[in-house]
Specification:
Chain A: It comes from Secundilactobacillus kimchicus JCM 15530. The complex is a heterodimer of chains A (about 350) and B (about 230). Chain A is α/β, with parallel strands linked by helices. Chain A is built from 13 helices and 15 strands. Chain A has helices spanning about 50-55, 80-90, 105-115, 120-135, 150-165, 180-200, 210-215, 235-240, 245-250, 255-265, 290-295, 325-340, 350-360; strands at about 5-15, 20-30, 35-40, 65-70, 70-75, 80, 90-95, 170-175, 200-205, 220-225, 225-230, 275-280, 300-310, 315-325, 340-345. The longest helix of chain B has about 35 residues, at about 25-55. The chains are: A alpha/beta (about 350), B mainly alpha (about 230).
């Protein structure tokens, strides 16, 4: 396997306040590969932004090791030299929640500002800035000021600025959090497009799980400064291990409530087996419910179903209750498993309690 | 008209236009005492203001010792009442301009009197620059001089013009006190030739002239601040 483009090893950041030390990032290990769109999610104050700032040393870690593009930026107390850091930072673009454009400079000057220390001549800088603005679809606004643009447009300018030095990495720190849903999706799609076209590695810091679902291929969940769960997007979404992760992605919320209500109302009999079926796009072509009844004499009753997209990948979730004799239910589950459908049996009592807790 | 004026403002007319006691001389003295301290005090204040913002905790050049130095110097000079500062630094004035009295001698205390005020104003103006913008500039590899000139001073330009206006106006106020060390000017005209001689007409005209000067400064300041502002209203 190739070396990760970003390697964080046991990174800690603590903030010293008058009488106390606040651990913002604790023992974080993270490998990000070239071409990844790595989502880092968590609630506000989880340490996501602080963590992302250790990548380009806008925030110095208290301890740990940061390696980017094969260069060691920080190792315990030793920091890369200021001049080298400035050069290395140009290979790491960054965009922010509040765009952070220079208000007193025109759009094109904002982009050109990032190219000031490149080897390009002034004419070439202007040409490249123009090119970048065309890339983000804002060529005609070159001479406007930031205040004259909408939020989505300002973020596009910020993206053009961040891409000015042809970075290999783009850190997006809550870049869509201040935008409306339509602009959010446009910006996310733009990031995805850039990722594909330029093989740009994107670190997507966000509290919006939908943003991650839309474009990321990997995800890490942060809580209290720690990464509590990480892996491929599909793995984490289908099999979330931590409670917080489940909560964050709204895992099982609806169906469990439905099952809880059904069993409470007494309409349901005890011989029902509740199962959750998960399948990924294209793998299921046969009509499952019909098949179960015809071949296994098992009556399947759909309680809840949902189809979700993780990137381009379709994920189907189906909560059903099965009625029939035990042996038939076993063999029908085996059948489903052999057809790439993940089957999880739901323990009624336990889940019911959880769903009640949820309802409170 | 002329006779009405001569009749209503006899003392004003008596002082004349040119000559050592004349109005022209007083106006030029006031402009002179406003202009040069504005330059010297302005540069000094800008440097100290920048120093305060750059070296503060969390600043680009965070340095506690330097910050304390800038902070204490500014506070010390602000604490001394100007009329006392005039006398207090007379030996220093002597060293710098070779005399302790007169219009030129007033330039030194005026510069030193106005710079701490300006430094604080600059500090506030520069602190108004969003930290996120600084961060964004750093993330594209900005150098210290980029941060100072393209980010801090440029982004705060409109606000700096506004605080310069306030400072200039307070400087005009300080020039009125410089009469105490024989510097002349419109303030001196109002006190020494007006008030002390029971010539209220002289006091009135001198005051009106100061008012005109202040209004000109205020209007030009407001105008420039507006022209150079591209932030959302």
């Amino acid at each position: 396997m190739t070396e990760p483009i970003i390697k964080l090893e046991d990174v800690n950041v603590t903030f010293q306040q008058k009488n106390q030390t606040l651990p913002a990032v604790q023992h974080v290990n993270l490998d990000i590969n070239q071409g990844d769109i790595y989502g880092i999610v968590g609630y506000s104050g989880a340490g996501k932004s602080t963590l992302s700032r250790t990548i380009n040393l806008l925030q110095n870690p208290t301890s740990g090791k940061v390696t980017v593009n094969g260069r060691v930026f920080f190792d315990q107390k030793v920091t890369i030299k200021a001049k080298e850091l400035r050069q290395e930072r140009q290979k790491i673009g960054m965009i922010f929640q509040h765009f952070n454009l220079l208000n007193e400079q025109t759009v094109i000057q904002n982009v050109a500002f990032a190219l000031k220390h490149s080897k390009l001549k002034e004419k070439e800088i202007t040409a490249k800035a123009k090119e970048l603005l065309d890339l983000v679809g804002l060529g005609e606004y070159a001479n406007s000021y930031a205040a004259q643009l909408s939020g989505g447009q300002q973020q596009r300018v910020a993206i053009a600025r961040a891409l000015a030095n042809d970075p290999k990495i783009l850190i997006s720190d809550e870049s869509t959090s201040a935008l409306d849903p339509q602009n959010t999706n446009q910006i996310l799609d733009l990031l995805k497009d850039l990722n594909k076209r330029l093989n740009l590695t994107v670190i997507l810091i966000t509290h919006e799980i939908d943003a991650v679902k839309r474009i990321a291929n990997k995800v890490a969940v942060m809580d209290h400064g720690q990464i509590i769960e990480k892996g491929s997007l599909i793995d984490v979404f289908i099999h979330p291990k931590q409670e917080l992760t489940q909560k964050l992605i709204g895992f099982n919320d609806g169906p469990l409530k439905a099952i809880g209500l059904l069993t409470k109302s007494g309409e349901r009999t005890q011989d029902e087996t509740f199962v959750k079926l998960t399948y990924t796009g294209g793998e299921v072509n046969e009509p499952i419910v019909v098949k179960l009844y015809k071949d296994f004499s098992v009556a399947a009753n759909i309680i809840y179903s949902n189809v979700d997209f993780l990137g381009d990948q379709l994920i189907g979730t189906l909560f059903i209750s099965l009625q029939g004799d035990d042996a038939n239910i076993r063999s029908s589950i085996a059948y489903l498993n052999s057809h790439n459908v993940t089957v999880e049996e739901i323990q009624q009592g336990k889940k019911q309690n959880e769903s009640e807790a949820e309802a409170v | 008209m002329t006779t009405w004026f001569a009749h209503t403002f006899p003392n004003v007319v008596y002082l004349g236009w040119g000559g050592s006691d004349g109005w022209e001389t007083a106006i030029i003295q006031t402009l002179y005492m406003t202009f040069w301290p504005a330059i010297f005090g302005g540069i000094l204040g800008l440097l100290f203001g920048l120093g305060l913002v750059l070296t503060e905790d969390g600043g680009v050049l965070e340095n506690h010792a330097s910050f304390t130095f800038f902070d204490k110097v500014v506070s010390l000079f602000r604490a001394v009442p100007f009329i006392i500062l005039l006398a207090f630094i007379a030996p220093v004035t002597q060293k710098i301009v070779g005399t302790q009295i007169g219009t030129t001698a007033a330039l030194v205390p005026l510069s030193l009197g106005v710079f701490p005020f300006f430094a604080r104003q600059v500090q506030v103006a520069l602190k108004g620059v969003d930290k996120g913008v600084i961060e964004a500039a750093q993330s594209v590899g900005a150098t210290l001089s980029d941060l100072i000139f393209t980010v801090y001073l440029r982004e705060a330009r409109s606000e700096l013009i506004r605080v310069s206006t306030v400072t200039l106006i307070s400087l005009v106020g300080l020039t009125a006190m410089a009469g105490a060390i024989g510097a002349g000017g419109l303030g001196n005209m109002a006190i020494a030739y007006g008030y002390n001689r029971f010539a209220n007409d002289t006091t009135l005209i001198a005051t009106l002239l100061v008012l005109v000067l202040v209004l000109i400064i205020q209007f030009s300041g407001d105008f420039l601040a507006k022209v150079f502002n591209h932030k959302a209203a």
